[in-house]
Amino acid sequence: MGRPRVGVSAFERIEAILSNPEIYELGELVPAQDPSAGGRRRTYPDFMLILYEALISVYGSARQVEAELAHPKVWSFIRTHVRKMHPRRRDLHLPREPMRRHHYIYGRNRYLADPELLEQFVDAHRQAAARTAREVGLLDPNGPGSFTRPHRSRLLYGDGKVVTPLFKAKPGETRVDTETGEVIPKRHEPDAGLHFEGTGETAWGTKFVLVAARGETEHSRVILDFESVPKPGAEATTALECIRRTTPLVPGATGVVYDTAFRGTHHQTLLRELGLLPINRVTAAKADANRPRRGEGRRVEKTVRIEDKTVTLPDGSKASITLYARGGGVGIGRLDDRGNMGFVELRRIRTQRARDQSGKYRWYNHYALPAEYGDTTITVRLHGTADDDQRGLNRPENVRPIPPTDPDFTELFRRRNDAESINRALDDTLYLRRAHSIGHHRQLVNVLGYALMVNSLTLHRHRHRHRGRPPDRLATAA
What we know:
alpha+beta
């Protein structure tokens, strides 16, 4: 019998975070203390602010982290582990007394949540995460797959996540002091907004976008980038910016899996500027409200005329065909004897990417025509051009390089499920499923800690698999 699957212990997560070089790199970005300014010397090395932040995603709250660090065995293990990793860096060695919550709160508000410093932290994390992805075998330029048959280990994927605020009150709500009669504003989240989810439901809170990659094994996810959504309706723009700044660091990426928040303009940017395949569905023409949300037949796909093509048949004669797009697939439109339009979808043979003199990418799909046209293929452009704009055709909105009807689509699009898993796991690290802090800058710091915890575990397990040592050996050491 195989070994039963068990969860990940908090102790293993601590070891994984301590073993991740990124926390020490981020600690170097904390401004050094100016001796000429006076004041008390810092009790703890700067990396402890980063470690404490990551541990919040392990234990669920800053108060619980304080309680866990106060246990002599836990604090002794952390001190010993740091000394073993950095025996000659006495400036990184920890004192006997454990770090307290008020040390973390001061450092977070003073340094980590500073907008300029926070941008540096996120940028450094992005580069460190890209290195982690390469080390664990993700987004490898020489890895498996191609543009015709992409491999899931070379895909970026992401989603938006609304974090529920600490307080239920909305801006402008007040209460009356029962003793003085004074009207007092209720405590609220100043950066919260009303966001619309893909199901049409609304969610009140602060929204973030997370972009990740993952392998085929358990605990092989790497969160590459994240950003707060500045206002409702800006999720797609924010996600595209995350992908834009991540792509140069991961040249092995071949595509992006996202939901229908990405529209034609975003697909055009992915195709032309970033050279990545967009893998998602086309928004439906309409939906039947009387059917269940996931039921068959609820979607009514859009049908859009793409272009006319002239093909040479095997006997040398010419034939003109009209191409349409339905649900992202390309096919031939035919009228029956009643005047109804029929649609015969073409089989995709190859997806091709080229680069023009401007440095932008050009994309084409090669399709097999029906048997009546002989052994003939046809080439269809995937990106939009000025000619399409003049015709009023939004080609990237209606044509998918790999449509949902393609045999490869289902396996690739399953990465959307993992994006939902990231959101759920983030929820599970929040005490009572509410934000750890107030304000989107502080909450972005919390997301950084969550990403550090996830990536550290991935790197930790990968290294132990290759060293042949069981990653859960600390279960008895505690």
